[in-house]
Amino acid sequence: VCQAAVMGTEVSDLPLAVDMDGTLILSDMSRISVRRVLSRKPWLIPSVILKELRGKRAEWKRDLGRILVFNPSDLEYHEGFLEWLTGEHARGRVLILATASDRIVAEQVAAHVGMFSDVMASDNDYNLRDKKKAEALVARYGENGFGYAGNSHHDIAVWEKASQVIVVNPDPGVLDRVGNSVDIVFE
């Protein structure tokens, strides 16, 4: 665990924001939603495409999240990372699920996992991804006031504002881009 301290607080004692898609789970809930919902209700395809083209990704995620029926226990979780999170939770660390997936879906996953004290997620108006996720976490915890676990290039903006950088199941090239700021890696 990282030995750095921030204003007298060990980094490992700071709240830890955890990304869901590709990090906590080894899939992407937007892709799952698209496959499961649109294969059964293809008449929704034009609406999803139109909203995506208009830059309203959060809206189509919400639309599909309302319809999607899934069992969170059927998802494939990153077992090694989940075991580590269980230990962090057991010692009292605050864990926050911070995801670009829609809140409706994220809350189901968080309830299943049972360790998250809060869920920060996309809603009908706001796609919590990249710089927007970084801004939301800084607004809540302050710059360098939290750790962050993620896996993709979209997480770099968040890691730049975090005190603890945890990379889980990294997309190609992510470790090269994050460089020496990585504290923990779960492959």
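The above is record 1. Record 2 follows with the same two-line structure.
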Amino acid sequence: VIVSASGMATGGRVLHHLKHYLPDERSTILFTGFQAGGTRGADLVAGAERIRIHGDDIPVRAAVENLSMMSAHADADEIMGWLRGFRTAPRRVFLVHGEPHAGDALRRRIEHELGWDCCLPEQGEEIGL
């Protein structure tokens, strides 16, 4: 058993472990939590047959599993509960993490239920505070 911070399997020492164990059908690669689209982690969870690591195409023969219930990310209800605990509403809420469609849904919910100004800044967008 090797425990390694996987992130989304986009970098770090986990890549060396994956490169070594993915081709071995006796191995299981176990992710704990959300894997963002477009990452190696998401591709593996989705059933990719090959993954590119360090310029090499690595065959996936290991079992790949995901314990999605182990995610450290809060869901929308948990975030709304946390926001409702504020004594004073912020001037503006910035949503900067997560998938775009989910972020937009949460933005609309914050605006509708709390009446707060909320936005999803674009990558590289500058906003004066």
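The helical segments are 14-21, 40-45, 76-84, 100-114.
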